[in-house]
Amino acid sequence: MRVSLLQIAVDQDEPVAARRARVATLVRARRGVADLVVLPELWPVGAFAYDLFEPEAEPAEGPTYRAMSEAAADAGVWLHAGSVVERAPDGRLYNTALVFGPSGEPVARYRKIHRFGFDKGEAVMMAPGDELVTAPVPDLPLGLATCYDLRFPELFRGLVDAGALGFVVSAGWPARRREHWTLLSRARAVENQAYVLACGTAGGHAGVEQAGHSLVVDPWGEVLAEAGTGEEILTVTLDPARVAETREQFPALKDRLLGTPPPPGR
């Protein structure tokens, strides 16, 4: 399976509509190059551009949804389209990740559970999601997580129990905590013996410099590819069988005693 992570530069001087069109073009260019394409968190507005959350909020099937659905179909790829500021019918805002199949059909939607901000910013402007979500990518079902979720290992354990063999973590991660980004991405891969596809942004959101350094980690915790700090595309070939091989060679998950799902039939 060929995977492309698109580390998009978010410049507040670039209009949202222009960036949406530019990113759609980048996705279309992955036709024949990748089977799965991944975008970062809140790339249309910027994860720290709180002043844009309200004016740029979109309905469930808004302009970013439509643009990314069409781009996925044109490219013939599975597309994790990063996340958008979703405005629900009741008026609440969510940080919502969108996943499309290679015909442009929606296959998963994940509302970010752990909101960042410590009682300000996203933490007070957006409502939390309440469901663990996996995307049915052939041979490599993916658990979905967004940015700050990376700090909560119980979410990833739940996704493993739901059948995930890999995780997509889309993010707008600050440069000042870049070492945490790399460390936690590798930790989630090692402890769950699963691939981690961690895609962040470049540039700056409302004056917050972004870490970049998107990375792909294998089930043994080895970094297969890592980006720099600017806009960049990583393309890596994954072997889904590597997950089962790792779990068989070092069957640590079988020794879980706390928080394990009940045996079949109970």
UniProtKB/TrEMBL annotation:
CDD domains: nitrilase_5. GO terms for molecular function: hydrolase activity. Pfam families: CN_hydrolase (PF00795). Keywords: Hydrolase. Residues 6-240 form the CN hydrolase domain. The keyword Metal-binding does not apply. The keyword Hydrolase applies. PANTHER family: DEAMINATED GLUTATHIONE AMIDASE, NITRILASE-RELATED. Belongs to the carbon-nitrogen hydrolase superfamily. NIT1/NIT2 family. This is Carbon-nitrogen family hydrolase. The lineage of its organism: Bacteria, Bacillati, Actinomycetota, Actinomycetes, Kitasatosporales.
